[in-house]
Every structure is written in C-alpha cells, then in structure tokens.
Amino acid sequence: MTRRRAEPRCLAFAFAAWVALSQAQEGGATGAGGIKVVPRLAVMQTWTDNLRLDDLNKDAALITTVSPGFSVSANSGSLRGSLDYALNGIAYVKTDQPSRVQNSLAASAQAELISQRLFVDMRASIGQQSRSAFGQLSVPTQGSQGSVSNLANTNQSETASLAVSPSLRGALGNLATYQLRGDITRTEVRGSEFGDGHSEGLSLRLNEWNAGILGWWASANTMQTSSSLDEANRSSTLAVGLTYRPDPDWVFSGNVGSERNNYLGGTRNGVTTGADVQWTPTPRSRVGATWQRHDYGNSHTLTLEHRMARSVWRIADTQNTVLGNTGASGGVGTNYQQFFLLFESLERDPVKRDTLVRGYLQSQGLSPDAPVAGGFLSSGPSRLRSQLLAVTLQGARSTLSAQVNRSVTRSLGSNLNPGSDLANSSRIEQRSVSLSASHRLTPQSGLSLTATRQETSGDLSSQANQLTSISVNWDMRLGARLSLLCGARHSRFEGFTPYTENGAYASLTQSF
Description:
- This protein is mostly beta strands.
- The protein has 3 helices and 26 strands.
- It has helices at about 5-25, 335-340, 350-365; strands spanning about 35-50, 60-75, 80-95, 100-115, 120-130, 140-145, 145-150, 155-170, 175-190, 190-210, 215-225, 235-245, 250-260, 270-280, 285-290, 300-310, 310-325, 325-330, 375, 380-395, 400-410, 425-440, 445-455, 465-475, 480-495, 500-510.
- β10 and β11 form a beta hairpin.
C-alpha cells in the first residue's frame, strides 16, 4: 500500500519540539554561547557507471545533488542539545531516472522546564533504511557534510523517527527520590505503511533517599507499541531491587518482580528476576554486565570500554526484545558515535563535544554516518542479539578506525511478523566489517580510505547476500567556511541481482 509522504510529520514534530524547548531557554538562565545556528549549502556532482545497480541493464549517469541545510546547537541555560538537517534535491542526467528529494535529520536535546524538577528529552532522526535484509544493498555517496543515497536502490526507504520523553523528578520527604517519566515514540516510512509504528509508555521509579552502601529501589512501568500491520503489543512490570556499593568502583544490584505481556500471543503473567554489575576501575574504563529473566526470552548486556589518550576500545554483547521496526543493530556503529566516545576525555560537555567531533570528522574527510549499519524494516516483536568490537586509534596526523559487528534477529514465538523478512525466515544474521584510515597531508587537506564488507544470511541458501566496497577521498579547506571533497569508489554486490558499480564524486560546501 502506498500513500503520501509520511516523514514530514515527524520532521514537523521535531522542529516543533525544538521551538517549544527553545522557549525554556529564553525563560531560563542565559549563559555564554546561547543558541547557535549555522546555515550551509552543499553541491555534489556524482558519476556512476551503474545507476540502476543491475549488471544486465547498466545505466551510466551523472547525478547532481543540491543540499541546503543548517545545524543548531544550544549550550547554555535550560536548553542543551544539537540539531542537524539537510534537504537533498537529487537530479539525474543522461538517464530517465526521475528526480527526487531526501531528508536527513539528527537531533537530540534536553530542556529543563522547571529547575531540577521538570525535564523534556527529545530525539529525532531521518535517514535511509533497507526494507529487506535480503534485498539489494548499496553504499551512500560521501560528501563534505555527510552521505547521500543517490543511487537507484529500490530496497531503500526513507525512515523518520521521533521520541519525546518528559520526566518529573523530586523527593518524598526523607524517604525516597522519584522519577515519573513518559515515553512517546513514532516511526514513519516514506511511501508505505509497512514499518510505521508508535508507542506510549509511562514509568515510575523510587530510589532510597541518601542510600549508603546498601539501598533499595522500586519501579513500575507500562508500554504499548502499535503498528499498522500487526496487533498492539502491551507490557507492564512491577519490580523491587537492592543495590550494594562496597566502594565507589563497584555497584551490584538485584531485582525481582512480576510482568504481564502479550508478546507470545494472548496475555501472559510471569515472574522476572535480574542482576546487574558495574565496575569502573578508572575514569576511562568501564565494565558492565546485566541479565534479566523474561518468560518470552531472557535479555543481557555485556560491555567493556576503555579510553586512552589517543584510542578507544569497545566490546559489547547485547540481547533484547525489539518491538516493531528493528532499524540498525545496537552498539557503536558510525564514525560519529565512535569519535564522540573517544573525545570524552577532551570535552565532557556533550554539546561542545558534538561540535568538536563534527569538525574533526570533516577535517579528516570522514563521513559522520559511515559505515552503514545493518537492519531492516519490521512490524512485530523479535529477538535481537548484537555483538560489536570497535577500535579507534588517533595519531598526530593519522587516524585508524576498525569495527566488527554481528547481529542475529529471530522471530518471537509463533508471531509471523507480517510483511517483514521474519515471516519467511526465523533467523536473520547480519555481519559487517569496516576499516577507515585517514591522514592529514597539510593542515588544510587530507586523504582517507574506507573499506567495508556486509553479509546477510537466512534460513535458506537463497536468502543471502554480501556487499563489498572501497572508497578513497581527498578533502581540502578552501577558506574558513568553504570545503571541497573529491573521491572515488568501487562496490560489488552478490545476491539475487548481483552488480558491480564504480563511481566518482566531488562535493563543495559553503557555510554561512
């Protein structure tokens, strides 16, 4: 089923939330910096020898992409956060492929509406997502300010998501502190109802006031997730727990409770128990392990993270239940996320660090949203196991980043997850390996090389594909606000419709 474009509603919601939150900035304390808006205009020219990604019907073409955009950052007062948006107009020459428009959005903010009492968190994003894990895969074209999916890949859909979470915090005398939190999320897929969904949740957590070595806590939460193609999934949980902190480096926690859900069809009641261990031996090292029992499948998280002056190492293993659109698998999967973690030792403030990381990636010729994470559109509940190994090394003029990611998605119980790949395969495994290296030739110019490999497999031998790509880029700053990036790539895809694609591109970005 097709329909009118859905994602502008999420985009409008995101902008409306920013406008509303900015009012809190005007009414709160005004510090240095305030809200900063930086408009920009980028023009990209791309040549490809296989626009349609089909070796039997190759279509060489020139692609012109014009991308007006802007970034917003707030770093003082009661509003803190960042927003980056671009509207990509894509036109094709020497081909009958119609012109189109893509949106790109990444936003995150927190507003303190009442001092130390009422808060609102907001996250929003718009990007390209694979409809099917077994369909065609392609690499985006890298520009000076990010990536654009300008090849004719019919397996990609523009997906928008928005999450707004108001929370009320306070104290119940000298007995306990409380946090009452609401969670509202919405996901919309352009041109289709498949993958659309929304959820509403409410939670309350009590923590012992001024807890010492031993403390107690209690929580209650309820959530409902709905999609257009599947029945609504509901869950409610009541739990109590104890926390033991023998010293500042160690925290142990255990809990027991009851839960009610319909994930396996029909309403079920069960007992849930869990444990959590956190160890922070140094300010730059963290080890964590959590485990929770559920009647529909246990969940766990194992994390090992260590930061040094010029490197960051991260190992993660998570398993949980995903409701609706799976999107990208968990863990640190992009250059931006990895360097945001690396630069924590340089800048603790998240908003200032956001500016620092984006400026550094641009100077290194690295795209913030590369490499492309795996994932696919879904409508019902599923089980996701994600494993990640990521290493980033930073030298005086060179940077090396490597990531290995594996995710396994399984159908949950007898749920058919209508319309998605899980209706035809009970198990979908996705693996990716990426390596990025960059070197500054001069303070104004540099080279970068990125190699990636993605593989997908299902129950049947025919449910498999793999994409291998390599790209090289040269970037130069032509002025204080003008930058140029030139590059070339080679991609090879093996699947139902195999192809080989070569491309060359140049991107010029002017900030104002």
